[in-house]
Amino acid sequence: MTTYGTILIPVPLEQAAPVLREVCTAGYATPAGPRFCLAHPDRFVDGNGVFALAGPISAELGVPVLAAFQYDGDRLELEVWQDGVRAHRYDSWPDRDDESANDAPLGADPAAFLDFATGPMDSHRLASALADTPIDAEDMDVDGEPGYVWAQALH
Are residues 25 and 49 in contact, defined by beta-carbon separation less than 8 angstroms? Predict the structure, then answer.
């Protein structure tokens, strides 16, 4: 299983670095353009996962942050944190381990992610991605299952 997590922070790295040094036990951060940075905490250190760190980072910086965690290629979890409180949660496959459950994503609300747009946003495309609905024909048959799309291709 391949898993990884990232925290998108809408401030330059220079502004976020002191807070990241304080709350993140291990990992690294990178700039992501002039207005954003990305934190990549080492999830193998207890209490150092993206969802555990997003709240304290948002509280200390006073900005919303987006924590993302991808499981293999087929499940994506996103949490928006504001002022230390989780404001929104998205899960592309919330009942992954329950074969009889509905596969519909949880929290597929494009408006929850507007603070993280880096430019003009195509709300139809974002809504389609969050709803796990491919727009492009080449994405409609991936891995031999019609309509199935890996999370990294869709998201």
Answer: no
Residue 96's Cα: distance from chain center in Å?
17
pTM exceeds cut of 0.70: yes
- H-type helices in the chain, by residue range? 13-23, 50-61, 123-130, 151-154
Crossing angle between the packed helical segments 50-61 and 13-23, to the nearest 10 degrees: 120
For residues 49 and 5, the answer to whether their CB atoms sit within 8 Å is yes
Largest separation between any pair of C-alpha atoms in the chain:
48
Residue 89 to residue 146: CA distance in whole angstroms: 28
Q: What is the pLDDT of residues 45-86, one digit of tens each?
A: 999 999 999 999 999 999 999 999 988 777 889 999 999 999
Q: How many CB atoms lie within 10 A of CB 95?
A: 13
Length of the chain: 155
State the CB neighbour count (10 A cutoff) for residue 62: 10
Percent of the chain with pLDDT strictly greater than 90: 55
Going from the C-alpha of 21 to that of each of 15, 27, 29, the distances in angstroms are 11, 10, 10
Q: Output the CA–CA distances (angstroms, integers) from residue 34 to 66, 92, 98, 118, 121, in the order listed.
A: 17, 29, 42, 10, 18
Structure tokens of 47?
Answer: 């209490």
Give the single-character DSSP code of 136. Answer: S
